[in-house]
Amino acid sequence: MSADKPLALTLGEPAGIGPDITLAAWSRRRELALPPFYLLGDPASLAARAARLGLTIPTASVSPAEAVDAFAQALPIVDIGTPATAQPGRPDRSSAPAALASIRHAVDDVRAGRAAAVVTNPIAKHVLYRAGFKHPGHTEYLAELAANGAAEVPRPVMMLWSPVLAVIPVTIHVALREAVASLTTRDIVQTGVIATNELRRRFGIANPRLAVSGLNPHAGEDGSLGREDEEIVAPAVANMRNAGIDVRGPLPADTMFHEAARKTYDCALCMYHDQALIPIKTLAFEDAVNVTLGLPFIRTSPDHGTAFDIAGTGRANPASLIAALRLAATMVRTSARAT
């Protein structure tokens, strides 16, 4: 992985706002000093979206090796050979094949050294599910691609990062009932170990400080509000501490996210999806970035969905994609210094 390589940006759901925010981000490349990136997609589809938005944005069909030189004058597009015919807000049969082909090409490029990192535009999971997609989401699919046919698939960890808060949900895209039933000490420990290692290597934090939330209100109130915190979460914290990790918990989740509390840790490990995502989306909705830890390459993504209702209208805000591009480039540089 090299800091002089471009970032590989996936198409995402073609009917969503991915094309809109890609065009908007590239148009601000000089103003914001954005790192060079190329889009893996269908050039005709991007041209049609630009025309719909009333944008005059030059594009260049390139190979990844040509993207850095092209970036200053045109939006570099690597043609994935899969057409995307969906209109804004209306996914069609081309949506899933185009979105998945773009992801596969991006992973191939970063693994082959043609790209420095992968940045993914939002996908529509329900569209992929209808096409036979077997994974809960982006994160798990990337882990399978990273395994490249090996028997052991890396354990991916989803972190939401922003300048004011970083959070990791131990259980992710499952129903709340299933999250409670499936939570284990082993999963919490594995998540904490991966987070600690990646915060050191990718973020340059020499001694990461973790704060672990309780599962129940008041972290179980000494067992009176549920015994999961005493029987599952507390042993995980003890195991991590014994392994040399700077960690505290289980802590009452309702007092973990105010300003003074946030200064005492670098990342919060939360027990389920909304426990982690509600505070960060409240505090940093436009600045938050989805980062996948535990993969052999860097992957970031905007922390929002496809926004079908505003696709093609020019109202989509590219701030989270811009933050994802910037963070990916920073992580590349930090990782290079660590090797």
Mean pLDDT: 94
Q: Assign the structural class, choosing from mainly alpha, mainly beta, alpha/beta, alpha+beta, or little secondary structure.
A: alpha/beta
Number of strands: 12
Poorly predicted regions are none
Please tell me about this protein's structure.
The structure is a single chain. The chain is an alpha/beta fold and 339 residues long. It folds into 2 domains: 1-155 and 295-339, Isopropylmalate Dehydrogenase (3-Layer(aba) Sandwich); 164-283, Isopropylmalate Dehydrogenase (3-Layer(aba) Sandwich), CATH 3.40.718.10. Helices cover 41% and strands 16% of the residues. Helix 9 packs across helix 10. The longest helix has 20 residues, at 319-338. The relative contact order is 0.17.
Q: What topology does this entry show?
A:
Blueprint: E1 7-10, H1 18-27, H2 29-32, E2 37-41, H3 43-52, E3 59-61, H4 67-71, E4 75-79, H5 95-111, E5 117-119, H6 125-130, H7 138-147, E6 157-161, E7 166-169, H8 176-182, H9 185-203, E8 209-213, H10 228-242, E9 246-251, H11 259-262, E10 267-270, H12 273-283, E11 289-293, E12 299-302, H13 319-338
Parallel strand pairs: 1-2, 1-5, 2-4, 3-4, 5-12, 7-10, 8-9, 8-10
Antiparallel strand pairs: 6-7, 6-11, 11-12
Helix pairs in contact: 9-10
Essential attributes:
Isopropylmalate Dehydrogenase, alpha/beta, 12-stranded mixed beta sheet, single chain, 13 helices, 12 strands, 2 domains, 339 residues, globular, 41% helix
